[in-house]
Structure formats: C-alpha cells, structure tokens
Write a structure and sequence with these properties.
Layout lengths: L1 H13 L35 H54 L3 H19 L11 H23 L2 E4 L13 E7 L9 E6 L1 E4 L2 E4 L1 E6 L3
Parallel strand pairs: 2-6
Antiparallel strand pairs: 1-4, 3-6, 4-5
Helix pairs in contact: 3-4
Length: 221
C-alpha cells in the first residue's frame, strides 16, 4: 500500500506543469503615440520671422491707403470750393448782364429820341428874349408851353436813365471821352482847354455816353 502511494507521487512529480493562458494578455506597457509628418514642401516666400513681419506689412498698407484717402478728400474739397466760387462768379456775372440789358434796352430808342429833344431845344433858343414881352402874348404863351414841355420831357427821360448835359454851362475842361471838339480858338480871359461853347448838347444813358457833346475849346498856346 505504501509502495503504490509513493509510485503515484513520483509519477505526478514527473509530469510537466501545464499553465493556463488567460483569454486576453494584459498590457504591460503604454502604447507609443503615433505622429504624422507631411512630405509637402513649405509654401514659397514664407520663411522664419515672416509671421512677425506680416502685421507690420498690413499696418504699412493701411497707412498708405489712409494717406491716399486723405489726398482724395483734399482734392475733392478743393474741387468743391472751386465749383462754389465759379458758381458765385457766374451768378454775379449773370446779374450784371441782366442789369446791363435792362439799363441799355432803350439805347436804340433813346438815340432816335434825342433828335426830337434837340429840335425842341433849338425851337426855344431861336426866340429872342427881347420879343418875349406883353406885346407878343401868343409868342410868350407858345414859348412857355415849349419850355414846360421840354422840362417835363427831360425829367421823364432822366427817370429812365437818359440825361442831357451842357459842358459850356459850367466851363468844363475838355474830355475826349464825353466831348467832341468842333473848333478851337484863343481866348485870353479863359483857361486853356476849357469848353466855352456848346454846339450840340450831349446825352448820357445810365452813366454811359450815348452821344458826345459838340463843343468849342479854348486854345491859347
């Protein structure tokens, strides 16, 4: 009995030990992380330090654009001011032209009218003052009527800018712009160049010479 027991023990000791493998092997160490690298070449024109220079370039471009806008604003303002000045000049010039057209609209009519005024003036000067007496009442009445008509006519013409002037009344100095010298004669008692005689009276239309006065001028030298 003892021998059988020893024999079984020796047989069990001689058998190889079978290990039971687990279904899943335990992870003994951490799996290393995988990194991916690109084989594409870096973009052209970009180098180290360009990231810092990019904001500087953008600021320079913005500054340049701002300067251009400032110049455009200045140019537009200058054009605006010039346009306003041109418009105001046009207004003033148009206003003057309209006023001149109104002032000298009667110029042609006035030229024809002065002949009638001259004839009326000649009629008054042809009557000698010695004949204007009570012995000739009709002549006196006619003369007074002509004189009154002449005064009313000259006053009416003056309201419309037409004025008659006589240089010899105030002994005016000869002015070629408003006078026309018909003859010259020496007169020791008068100053040289004075209009002493008026052959035909002159007319002004709104300050402009419509017809120059024909005068005799003193010339002592």
């Amino acid at each position: 009995m003892l021998q059988r027991t020893l024999l079984r023990a020796s047989r069990q000791a001689a058998r190889p030990v079978q290990r039971i493998q687990p279904a899943f092997a335990p992870i003994t160490r951490a799996t290393p992380a995988v990194r991916w690298y690109s084989d594409a070449a870096p973009p052209e024109g970009k180098k180290d330090g360009e990231a810092a220079e990019a904001p500087k370039d953008a600021a320079a471009q913005l500054k340049e654009q701002l300067e251009k806008k400032d110049k455009e604003v200045i140019e537009l303002k200058d054009k605006y001011l010039r346009s306003v000045a041109d418009y105001r000049n046009l207004q003033e010039r148009t206003k003057r032209e309209i006023q001149a057209a109104k002032d000298f609209a009667l110029q042609r009519f006035a030229r024809d009218l002065v002949e009638s005024v001259d004839n009326l003036d000649r009629a008054l000067t042809t009557v000698e003052p010695a004949k204007l007496t009570s012995e000739n009442p009709d002549l006196v009445t006619l003369h007074d009527g002509l004189k009154m008509t002449d005064s009313i006519l000259i006053s009416t013409l003056k309201k419309h800018g037409l004025e008659r002037f006589d240089p010899s009344v105030e002994s005016e100095k000869f002015n070629p712009n408003v006078h026309e010298a018909v003859f010259q004669t020496p007169m020791p008692d008068k100053e040289d160049g004075v209009c002493f005689h008026t052959q035909q009276k002159g007319f002004l239309l709104n300050g402009r010479v419509l017809r120059a006065a024909k005068v005799g001028v003193v010339k002592n030298s």
